[in-house]
Amino acid sequence: MDEVLGKPTMISRVLLRLLFLSFTLNVGLVSRLIYEYDHERGSSSLHTTDAEEKQSYTEFCLGEEASKKTRESTTMSTAAADHEAYVSESSPSLSTEAEEDGKEKVVNLDHGDPTMYEQFWQNMGDKSMVVISGWQSMSYFSDIGNICWFLEPEFAKEVRRLHQLVGNAVTRDHHIVVGTGSTQLFQAALYALSSSGAFEPVNVVSAAPYYSSYPSVTDYLKSGLYKWAGDAYSFKGDEPYIELVTSPNNPDGFMRQAVVNRNGGVVVHDLAYYWPHYTPITYLANHDIMLFTVSKCTGHAGTRIGWALVKDKEIAKKMTKFIELNTIGVSKDSQLRAAKILQVVSDSCEHLNSREDSKNFFRHASRLMAERWDRLRDAVRQSGLFSLPEFMPESCNYFGEANTPHPAFAWSKCEGGIEDCESFLRGYNIITRSGKHFGAEAKYVRISMLDREQTFNLFVKRLSNISL
Amino acid sequence: MDEVLGKPTMISRVLLRLLFLSFTLNVGLVSRLIYEYDHERGSSSLHTTDAEEKQSYTEFCLGEEASKKTRESTTMSTAAADHEAYVSESSPSLSTEAEEDGKEKVVNLDHGDPTMYEQFWQNMGDKSMVVISGWQSMSYFSDIGNICWFLEPEFAKEVRRLHQLVGNAVTRDHHIVVGTGSTQLFQAALYALSSSGAFEPVNVVSAAPYYSSYPSVTDYLKSGLYKWAGDAYSFKGDEPYIELVTSPNNPDGFMRQAVVNRNGGVVVHDLAYYWPHYTPITYLANHDIMLFTVSKCTGHAGTRIGWALVKDKEIAKKMTKFIELNTIGVSKDSQLRAAKILQVVSDSCEHLNSREDSKNFFRHASRLMAERWDRLRDAVRQSGLFSLPEFMPESCNYFGEANTPHPAFAWSKCEGGIEDCESFLRGYNIITRSGKHFGAEAKYVRISMLDREQTFNLFVKRLSNISL
C-alpha cells in the first residue's frame, strides 16, 4: 500500500497505523490468492503457444535458424518460471524434472533475461507491491520544474538514494533523464551528441568485444546524424566520434576505459552492470554521461526503465527532447513501480554485514552469482570444452571486503579446435550468442548467467557431460 | 485488487468473497489517505519549481518564446489538478478561485493533455486500481507464441473486447502490436513500410491541416528510410509514398480518407480519436494499419500505451522489430494497467441506455464534450472573435442515435483581420497552437478541449470578455 500512501501527514500517520492493523488481516488471503491466480496463469501460458505464429521472437537476439529451438526452450523456461515462482525448490515435480535430462529440451542462454531474481522479489512479498489508482498519473507531465519534465520525482529521489548508498556513481551536479530502458537512453545520447548541421554522420565506436546490439541500434534507421563505425581499437582518422564504454563490459565482464582518447570525441559510459553483485565497486563514477537500467540492477527487465546521469544541462535537454519525439515521455506507472523496487533495495542495505545480511539484495544476488560461477567453472573443468576469463579479487567499497567479479555473462572460448562454438553447442540444444555478433571470433560465445535456476541447472549438468 | 486476483479458481472465489468483506473495512481509510497524500503532493509540486530549470517543457508542443507563460500556466493547471481530483466541485475554495479572473493566470490549451477524465476515474474508485507485486512481469517476454512477443495477453484480450463492444474497428484477422504510445507505433509503421534497400527515402505525406508532430517525428533522426514530404494535396510525381490519414482529424475533427490514391503508395490510419465521445461511430474500420492510444480513448496519457491493428503478418513483424530495437518491448506494468482501464470501460458499457447510463464511460465523456462545445460556441458568439467548424449530426452505431461530433480540439479561425491568432490570444494569457504548425495559416489556432474543468472554465470566461 505504501505506493498510495507516500509520505503521510501527522493525521494520516495515525490513519496509516489503523489501516495497517486492519490490512494485516488480509495479507494471508491475498498471498494465497496471488498463488492461486499465478499458478493458474502460469500453467495456462504453457498451452496457448501457436506453432504458426512463433517466428517473431527469434528476431530478438537470435538468427532465424535458431527459431524453432528457441521457441521450445522459451516455452520450457516459461514453465520453469511458473514453477520456480510459486513452487518451493523441494517440490518433487520440479526436482524430478531437473534430474532427468533427455537433451531434447532446449536450454536458451542467448539473451540476458534476468529472471534469476524472481525468487528474491517473491520473498519480499507485499513490501515491493505497488498500487496505482485509475485516476493517478494520467497527465503527460510529471515534474514541470525539471529539465526532464516526464521524470517522476519519487523515482528521481530513489535513484539518488541508491547511488548514494552503493557509492557507484555521483548524482550531485548531474541531471537525471529517465528512459524506456537504457536502450532508448543510448539512442537519446547519440541524438544529443550529434549535430543536425553536420555534413557527415558522426562515427559511433566501441572496443571489441562490444555489446552486440550497438551496431543494429545505431544503424536501423539509417540516420544522417550518426553511424556505426565498429571496433574502437581500429578507429583511425581525425573525424568526430562517440565512443561507447561499457564497464563492466558486456560480454566479457572486464572493467573498461575509453581507448580512442582523441580530440573531437565524446564518451558515453554504459554502467548497466556496475553494481556490487556483478563486480567490486572500486571507484565513484563521475563521467559526463552514465547509463543505468533496472533490468540488470534489480532484474525488472519487463518494466523498461533506465536512467541517465548527465553532467551538461544542454545534453540533458537534448536527450529529453529525443525521448519526447520518440515516445512523448516515459510511462509513469513504470517509474512509480521502479521507485518502489529501488526503495526496497535501498532499505535492504541496512542488513549489510548484519546477521540477516542475506536480506540485503546485493549480498543475496552476489552469493547467487558466485555460486553459479563456481558451478560453471567446475563443469568447464570436467568437460575441458571452454576457457573462461579469469578475474582477480579487488576491494569493494560497498561490501567493505575483497571480492571477485561475477559477471552477468560468461564469455567463453571453445577449445579443441572448434571454430564455431555457437553451432557446436546448438548440437547439444544449448543456445548461446556467437562471438561474431560482438566483433569477435566465432570461437567465442556469450552465455547468460541470469536465467532461472532450473535452466541454469540443466545447462551445467549438460555441459559437464560434454567431453572433447 | 482485481489485477492480482485475476480469474480465480473455485477455491479462490470463496477466498475472494472473504477478502472482499474484510477489505471493505479499509476502503474508507484508504481513500482518506489517498486524499491526504495527494493533496500534500499537489501543493508541494507548486513550490518545487525552479525558474532556471524550466525551459525544457516548452519544447513539448510549444515555441521557446511561450516558455515563461507556459510554465506558469502548467503550474496553475497542476494546482487545479490536485484540487479537482481530491476536492468536490462544490468546494468554496475552488469556486472562489474559479470566479475571480485577474487575467494574470496563464490558460494553457496548447497540448491535448486529457486531464478532464480524472474525475470519472476517481469516481470509479478501487474498480480501476491495479496491484503489481515485486516479482511479477520481470522478464522481457510476455507471449512467446505471439508475433508481438512483448504483448501482454490480458491487454490484447481487452483491446479486442473493447473494439467488439464499440464497433469502431475490426480486430479479427488483425495482429495487435503494442507500443509506447501511438507515437512509437507511427514510427514503427514508417520503419515497416519503408525499404532499407531503397535508393531514396520514401515520402511521408498527410493532408493539411495535419497533426503538428508528424513532420518533426518523421525527420528528427534524418532517416535514410523515410522523409517528410508535406501536404498530401500538393504531393505530385510518381515516387513511392506513405500517406497518414488521421480520422477524425487532429486538429480539425473532420472524418478523413486518403487523398493521394496512387500506385506505389500505402496508407496508415491514425484512429486515436475514433471513439464515441468524439465522433459518431458510422462504420466498422477495417484498414491495413490502424493506430489507437489509451491517451485519447480513456485519458491515460501518462501510461504511454498505444496499439496497432495490423492486417499483414510481415508488417506486424517489422513493426515489432522496430519496437524491439527502439525500446526492447513495451512496459509490462503499463500494459497491465491499461488492460485494467480498458476492462473497466468495457464493463461500463453495460450501463448504456440504462437508467444509470452516466456510469457508461463514453456517455459520461460524450456529455462532457457536448457541454464544453456548447459553452465554447456561446463564448465565441459573444466575442465574435472566432469562426469554428460546423458539424452535422450522424447516426452513431454505438449510441444507437444521431450524434454531433465534439472533437478533442477546437480548430478556430480568428476573424476581424487578425493575422496571427496565436499571438493575439497570448496577449490575453491564453496559450494555443498556431495553424502554421499544422501546415495551415496563422489565422488558425488549435485549442485543446480536454483540460481540467477549472482551466476550461477560466478559458471560456476570458474568451467571452474579448470583443473585437
UniProtKB/TrEMBL annotation, chains A, B:
Q: Which GO terms describe its biological process?
A: amino acid metabolic process
Q: Which cofactor does it need?
A: pyridoxal 5'-phosphate
A molecular function (GO) held by this record is: transaminase activity
| Top-rank lineage group of the source organism | Eukaryota
Provide an example Pfam family for this protein: Alliinase_C
Keyword annotations: Pyridoxal phosphate
Which InterPro entries does its entry note?
Alliinase_C (IPR006948), Alliinase_N_sf (IPR037029), Ethylene_sulfur-biosynth (IPR050478), PyrdxlP-dep_Trfase (IPR015424), PyrdxlP-dep_Trfase_major (IPR015421), PyrdxlP-dep_Trfase_small (IPR015422)
Q: Locate the region Disordered.
A: 78-102
For the Alliinase C-terminal domain, which residue ranges apply? 107-466
Q: Which family does it belong to?
A: Belongs to the alliinase family.
Q: Which PANTHER family match?
A: BIFUNCTIONAL ASPARTATE AMINOTRANSFERASE AND GLUTAMATE/ASPARTATE-PREPHENATE AMINOTRANSFERASE-RELATED, TRYPTOPHAN AMINOTRANSFERASE-RELATED PROTEIN 2
Q: What is this protein called?
A: Tryptophan aminotransferase-related protein 2-like
Q: Which gene encodes it?
A: LOC104593123
